[in-house]
């Protein structure tokens, strides 16, 4: 323990966790990062009336428990960092108080708004000026929805804080806007590298809400005296890391080749590659890829894929019916089920909203003239094979856009605990999959703290530290990956011409 520990809070859409990172000197001067999980809590959407919200105050409470626990266990972290899912935000009033409960990005308020905003601004302009795949959850549509609903919250709001900045504010009293999260709003101009105030004005979004972005790796301030007193802890420094979880995860990919391909695999699947700047060609727009600001002056060219959300939701239903089936069991049952019996397009919009997921999978299969999954195992197999095929398509698109050829795929995130999915991906791609680390977002979060504290020079050194510290499991294609070619053709047909 002692003076070198840092604390990372990684909040995903399904769970939040607190992890301690400690730099250790090994024999021969090799440094490694030792990571210990000290607190974990569930996170989910709360239905209130017609809306879906995050339980922000409970998240704050759980973070406080994490800080308390870090000191109770004797780690005495010198700093802490927070990374979360993208796009969501809270609004502060003139007295600095949080206005209402922040919306969950799956709130139905943004339905149909991509087309509406596109008819005002033009699709090409929206992409060129925002850099992102046009997805209904992007902050721009959430704010436009509030404006359309004449939300009084928007009228009294003085400052908008994206989720990690909001949580940091509740702990420090300091308001900042961290760059990587700013780039998930679609209101940040990727070429000018500043807020797109003209676009905000056109849509009735008050530009005054937005603070100038700060670089990942900037100190925010210490815990407030009130928080210190409540928890009985010293003034730990809060550092703005790569506060978008996806960017923290990419920072922790232990790749040697700078032109690597990655898949951040959790609730969402983000497949992409790292570039020095945004890639805003018409082809990129057509392929529906995003340009998200990363740490270390990078831009991430990536595709947002619906991901394990679909399986998570099916499991939630089975659990609620009393089946209480673990992910391990589900994976075993999927493995024992017939291959390629039915496929879905994971990015079909019906899978986006929570609830009724089993029925949605069945109806998708029935409507497309396929066998309908009958068991948990068949359902899981259908979802996992479909995801692996979607990863192949996204990887091929990324190669087409960048002219790069990827010899392998790095997979990180909670989803790699599903080794069946890793093996399926290796087979579908007919390329090796390097899986690890699982807790990439939390580790990337720690790396940015270490850089800010001067204990690690830069992103390249940070990635070498990850490579030296965590095992990576390589899944090689099984040799009969040709079996995946016909299903891939079937899969592409299901998606029609869509990229
Ligand atoms: P997020 O950060 O978006 O909340 P995670 O990166 O924690 O998501 O990944 C959660 C996903 O990981 C779950 O939806 C589940 O599919 C998968 N997962 C978690 N634990 C296991 C496990 N033991 N075996 C297989 N899959 C798992
Ligand atoms: C993954 C993620 C992803 C999207 C979504 C809202 O956790 O951050 O990059 O932005 O959540």
Automatic annotation (TrEMBL):
Basic and acidic residues bias (residue ranges): 473-499
Protein's UniProt keywords contain Amino-acid biosynthesis: no
Region of interest (Disordered), ranges: 472-499
InterPro entries linked to this entry: ATPase_NBD, FGGY_C, FGGY_N, Rhamnulokinase
Alphabetized UniProt keyword annotations: ATP-binding, Disulfide bond, Kinase, Nucleotide-binding, Rhamnose metabolism, Transferase
Pfam family, one: FGGY_N
A GO term for molecular function: rhamnulokinase activity
Domain Carbohydrate kinase FGGY N-terminal: from-to ranges: 6-250
The protein's name: Rhamnulokinase
Naturally occurring in which organism (per UniProt): Cohnella xylanilytica
């Amino acid at each position: 323990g002692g003076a070198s520990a840092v604390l990372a809070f990684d909040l995903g859409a399904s769970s939040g966790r607190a992890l301690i990172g400690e730099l250790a000197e090994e024999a021969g001067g090799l440094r490694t990062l030792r990571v210990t999980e000290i607190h974990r809590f569930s996170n989910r959407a709360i239905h209130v009336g017609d809306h879906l919200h995050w339980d922000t105050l409970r998240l704050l409470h759980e973070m406080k428990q994490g800080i308390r626990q870090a000191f109770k266990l004797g780690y005495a972290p010198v700093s802490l960092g927070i990374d979360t899912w993208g796009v969501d935000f809270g609004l502060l009033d003139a007295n600095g108080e949080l206005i209402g409960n922040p919306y969950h990005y799956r709130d139905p308020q943004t339905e149909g708004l991509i087309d509406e905003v596109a008819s005002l601004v033009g699709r090409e302009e929206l992409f060129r000026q925002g850099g992102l795949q046009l997805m209904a959850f992007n902050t721009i549509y959430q704010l436009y929805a509030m404006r359309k609903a004449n939300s009084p919250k928007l009228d009294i709001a003085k400052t908008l804080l994206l989720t990690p900045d909001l949580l940091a504010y509740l702990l420090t009293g300091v308001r900042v806007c961290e760059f990587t999260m700013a780039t998930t709003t679609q209101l940040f101009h990727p070429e000018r590298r500043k807020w797109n105030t003209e676009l905000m004005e056109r849509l009735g979004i008050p530009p005054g809400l937005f603070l100038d972005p700060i670089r990942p790796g900037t100190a925010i301030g210490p815990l407030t005296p009130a928080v210190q007193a409540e928890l009985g802890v010293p003034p730990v420094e809060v550092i703005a890391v790569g506060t978008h979880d996806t960017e923290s995860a990419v920072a922790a990919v232990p790749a040697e080749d700078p032109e690597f391909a990655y898949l951040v695999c959790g609730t969402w699947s983000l497949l992409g590659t790292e570039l020095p700047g945004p890639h805003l060609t018409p082809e990129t727009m057509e392929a529906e890829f995003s340009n998200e600001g990363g740490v270390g002056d990078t831009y991430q060219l990536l595709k947002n894929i619906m991901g394990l959300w679909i399986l998570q939701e099916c499991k939630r239903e089975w659990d609620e019916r009393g089946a209480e089936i673990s992910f391990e069991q589900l994976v075993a049952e999927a493995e024992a089920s017939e291959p390629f019996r039915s496929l879905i397009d994971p990015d079909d919009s019906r899978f986006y909203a929570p609830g009724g997921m089993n029925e949605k999978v069945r109806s998708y299969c029935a409507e497309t003239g396929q066998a309908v999954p009958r068991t948990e195992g068949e359902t899981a197999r259908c979802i996992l094979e479909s995801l692996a095929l979607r990863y192949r398509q996204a990887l091929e698109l990324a190669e087409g856009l960048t002219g790069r050829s990827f010899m392998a795929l790095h997979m990180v995130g909670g989803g790699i605990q599903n080794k069946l999915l890793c093996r399926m991906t290796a087979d579908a791609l007919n390329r090796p999959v390097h899986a690890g680390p699982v807790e990439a977002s939390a580790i990337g979060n720690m790396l940015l703290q270490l850089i800010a504290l001067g204990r690690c020079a830069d992103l390249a050194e940070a990635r070498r530290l990850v490579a030296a510290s965590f095992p990576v499991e390589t899944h090689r294609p099984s040799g009969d990956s040709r079996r995946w070619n016909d299903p891939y053709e079937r899969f592409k047909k299901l998606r029609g011409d869509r990229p």
